[in-house]
Amino acid sequence: MSEMNAAAAAETAAAHRYTAAMAADIEARWQDFWDQEGTYEAPNPGDGDLSGDAELAAKPKKFIMDMFPYPSGAGLHVGHPLGYIATDVHARHLRMTGHNVLHTLGFDAFGLPAEQYAVQTGTHPRTSTEANMANMKDQLRRLGLGHDKRRSFATIDPEYYKWTQWIFVQIFNSWYDADAKKARPIAELVAQFESGERAVPGGRTWAGMNAAERADLLSEYRLAYASDAPVNWAPGLGTVLANEEVTADGRSERGNFPVFKAKLRQWNMRITAYSDRLIDDLDGLDWPEAIKLQQRNWIGRSEGARVDFAVDGNADKKVTVFTTRQDTLFGATYMVLAPEHDLVAGIVPDAWPEGTHDVWTGGHATPDEAVAAYRKQAAAKSDVERQTDAKEKTGVFTGAYATNPVSGGKVPVFIADYVLMGYGTGAIMAVPAHDTRDFAFARAFELPMRCVVEPTDGRGEDPAEWDDAFASYDGKIVNSAAADTVSLDGLGVVDAKIRMTEWLADNGFGEGTINYRLRDWLFSRQRYWGEPFPIVYDEDGIAHSLPESMLPLELPEVEDYSPRTFDPEDADAQPETPLSRNQDWVNVTLDLGDGPKKYRRETNTMPNWAGSCWYELRYLDPHNSDKLVDPAVEQYWMGPREGMPHGGVDLYVGGQEHAVLHLLYARFWSKVLFDLGHVSSSEPFHKLYNQGMIQAFVYRDARGIAVPAVEVEERDGGFYYQGEKVSRVLGKMGKSLKNAVTPDEISAEYGADTLRLYEMAMGPLDVSRPWDTRAVVGQYRLLQRLWRNVVDETTGEATVTDTEPDEDTLRALHKAIDGVGQDMSGMRFNTAIAKVTELNNHLTKSGGPVSRSVAERLVLLVAPLAPHIAEELWRKLGHSESVVHQDFPVADPAYVVDETVTCVVQIKGKVKARLEISPSIGDDELEKLALADPAVVAALGGAGIRKVIVRAPKLVNIVPA
To answer: How far apart are CA 680 and CA 673, in angstroms?
Structure first.
C-alpha cells in the first residue's frame, strides 16, 4: 500500500477521533442546545413552570454566585475564569443531586477604566463598555458555563440603576435609632421632634426652626448625608476616594495614583452606625477566618475613654481625645492635634507665649505662620506616609496650652502629621514615657516625660535615661496621685482604667466610650460614568430626594468626559465635574408634591461600588419593574434558615482583595434594607470562598521591562528573548506583563472541556498555582481516552455492551463514585478529577468493550467537569434527555469497602509480616492470626511476649518479654 493510501486509510479509521476540531463542534452544538432549551433556567416561586410551588418547596435550593466581573477591554485571560469554572462545576453537581440551583452572571459596568478610555478617545463609555461585555459574553459562553441567562444584567442598564437610586433614597430617608439598634424612616424621627418626644438640641422647638435649620438637623441623623470634610483626593483620577480605596502606600487602589488630603463637600454613608452589628454578625457567617479578621480590624472596635482638656483655661474651648489608656492620664505631658483639626484655627494666639522653646516654632515668627506652613507640608503627604515611623519627627507648637484635668498641669498643644483625623477625635494626649511615637516626638522637641507605669525590666523610673518608651499592660501604676483629684498608685492597669473612667464621668471631664477605626463611607465621585444621585437642591440649598416615579434619573450626554482638577490649597476651589457642564440637565423645574419649583441637580456620581452593593437581589427578580424584589422570591432564595441565621447567598466565590471594600459595603446596604423591611436577609452572603490565583512566569530584560513570554526560549538552564538573556519570576498574569494566555487560545487548540479540566486539576481551588500550557495536554488525553472507551473512532457509534462488569471493575466504579461525590461536595475538584482518571485508566487497561452500566455512570461523573463531551456521550449511549439534570450516581457501600486489607505485624517496631485480612476482623482474632504466622513465630524464636498492641485491621505490634 502506498504512503498516500496508508494515510487515507488511517484518516478514515480515525474519522471519529476526539480532536480539537471535534471538540469545537460538540461544544458549539451543545451550547446552542442549552440556550434554546433553557436548560439552566432556575424557577422562582410562582413562576408556573413547575407543577406548583409545593414541588419547588420540596426541592432544596442553592444560590451560587461569583463576584461581579468588570468588562475589561483586554478580555479574559485564563486566570479570570478559574472561579467561574469552579462554581459551574459545583452548581452542576448540585443540580444532579436534586437541587434547584440559581447560578447566573452579570456585569459591574460603571467605573473609571471606561471613562478614562473615553477621555483619551472621545468614545462614549457606554459604547466601549457594551463592546467589552459582548466580547466577554462570547468568551464565557465558549467555556460552557451553566448560567441562567434570563437573569443577567449590567449595572449600567437604566432599569437596574433605577433601583440603585431607589435604595439610595431609602438610605437618605432613614436614620439609625441607637436604642432600637436599627434603621428607621426619617419621618418617624421628624414625628418625634414635632411631638417633643425627642428634644431638639439647643433647647429649641421643631416648630421654631426654619426649613434650612430642620434640614441641617436631620442631616446629622440621616444614613446618607452631605458634609464638608477632609477627603482623599486623587488628582490622577480627578476624583475623591473612600479610605478603603487607598492602598497601604497611600496611592489609589485603581491606577496606583498618589492620594492627597483636601476638604470638599461630599455625600457620605453613615456605615459607622452599624459598626457593632457588622462585627457581631460575622459570627453567624461561614467565611474564611482571615477575611473576618480583616473586617474586624478595619472596623477597629476599641474600648476606652473620652477625655476633655480645657484650652488656655477656657472651659468652653476644649480638646477632646479618645484614649484606650486612661490609666496613664497623669503621664500626659503634651497634646497633638491633626493638622486638619477644626479646633486649630481657633486656638492659635497672635504671638508666641513667653518661654516658648525655639525648637517648637519651626523658625517662624508667629504661631499663625508656623501652623499655616506646617499644614501645607502635611497636606502634601498621604496618610500612610504620615503614619510611617520615620526617624525624624515633625510638628509645630500652636502657641496654645491645655490643662491636664487630673494633674492640673499645663501641657503644650502641637500639630503633627502622625496624628490623623481619620481615627478617634483627631487629637491625642501624648504619654511619651509609654508610647514609642510620643517618646520620639518628645525627644525631638525637648518635651518632658513622666513615668506612670512601673518598669519591670530594671530600667528605673527616669525616662531621661531611657532609650525608648516602656509600653506595658502588666505593670503597676506609679506617680499618679493628686490630693484633690484621684489616686491610681499601686493599681494594675485594668483597675486603674476603671477608677479613672469613673472619676472622669463623676467630675464632668469625660466618660467611658467605645471608639471605631471605621469612618463613614465617602460616596461621591467627581466623574461621569456612574449612577447619578437622585437628589436635587432647592433655591435654599436644601437637598430633596426624587420620588420613585422620577426614577431612573439617567445620565445626560456631555461633550467632555474629563473632570477638571483643582488646587487643594485653595480653600475656595472645587473640582468641576463632567455633569456640571450640562446646564440644561442640571437646572430643572420639578413638581415634588408642592407645585412646580426650580431645582439644581447633584452633579457628582455614585462610586463604582454602588451597583455591586445589592446585585445579588436583582439576580432573584431581574425583570421586576414594580419592586426591588418580590418578597416571596427573596425569602425563598435568601431567607434565614437552619444553619444560616442571617440568610444570604448559599455560596459566594471570589478573590480576597475585596475584604474591606465590596464585602463591607454590601453588608451595610443589606442591613439597612433588612431594617426597613424590604428583605428578610440581614446579610448578603452566607458562605464565602476565596479562590486562589493562576500565576504565570514574567520575563524581564536587562532594563527590567517585561518581554513577551511566548517568545522566550529556554536553553542551557537560562531564558533568552531575541538572543538576550532575561530573568524569570512567578507573578500575576496580565496584558501589561506580556504573559497572558487567553481561554480562546486553549479552547481552539484543545477544546473548552480540556481547559475546564486543566484549571480544576491544577491544585486545590483556594491555592494559587502557576500556569503551564504544556501540561494542558494531559487533560486532553484523558478526554480522548474517555471517548475511546465509549465510542468507535471509525464508525462514531457507541461500543458499550450490555454485559455485567466484573467485580474488579465494580469496585473501581463504586470507589470512584463515592470519592468523586465527596470531593464534589467539598469543592476538591482536583482530587475528583484524579479519581475519574483512575477509573478511566482502569477501563482502558481492561481491554474490550465497556459495560453500558459502567460507561453511563462514568459519563455522569464527568458531566459537571466536562459538560460538552458528557452530553455528546450521553446521547451516543441512547439517551434523549440532557445529562444536566440526570441523577448523580450513588455508590454501593458493598463495593466501596475493600475485600481485604493489609495488616502490618511488627516486632520491636520492625515489620516482620504482612497479613491479608478482612476489614471487619476483630482485635482478638487478628492477634491470634498474627501470633500464628510462621514469619512471626520464627522472628520471636521462642521468646516470651510481654505485650501485644492491636489496631485492627491495619496494625499488630508485638513487644517481646
So the answer is: 9
CA–CA dist 862, 870 (Å, integer): 6
Closest-CA residue to 696 (of 643, 746, 747): 746
Domains in the chain: ranges and CATH: 166-274+520-601 (no CATH), 275-299 (no CATH), 302-515 (3.90.740.10), 695-742 (no CATH), 898-960 (3.10.20.590)
pTM of structure: 0.85
Residue 555 to residue 525: CA distance in whole angstroms:
14
- C-alpha–C-alpha distance, residues 829 and 815, integer Å: 16
Q: Measure the N-to-C terminal CA separation of the chain; round to a whole number of Å.
A: 78
Residue type (1 letter), 155: T
Pairing type for strands 901-907 and 910-917 reads antiparallel
Phi-psi group of 63: left, alpha or beta (phi > 0 → left; psi -120 to 50 → alpha; rest → beta) = beta
CB under 8 Å to 475, separation ≥6 — which residues? 453, 454, 455, 456, 493
Tell me the C-alpha to C-alpha distance, in Å, between residue 163 and each of 343, 407, 511, 631, 756. 41, 57, 43, 15, 36
- β-bridge mates for residue 907, sequence order: 910, 958
Apex CA 856: angle with CA 855 and CA 858, to 5°?
A: 65
Q: What percentage of the chain's residues is helix, strand, coil (to nearest 5)?
A: 40, 20, 40
Q: Which residues contact 650 (CB under 8 A, 6 or more apart)?
A: 61, 62, 63, 64, 644, 686, 687
For residue 506, give the 3-state DSSP assignment: helix
Per-residue pLDDT tens digits for 30-70: 999 999 999 999 999 987 544 457 777 778 999 999 999 99
* Separation between Cα atoms, residue 931 and residue 347, nearest integer Å: 93
Cell numbers at residue 742, please? 487567553
Lowest mean pLDDT, pick from 236-245, 416-425, 600-609, 820-829: 236-245
Instruction: Yes or no: say if 410 and 403 are a contact pair by the CB < 8 Å rule.
Output: yes
DSSP-based three-state secondary structure for 601 = strand
Whether pLDDT at 566 is above 70 = no
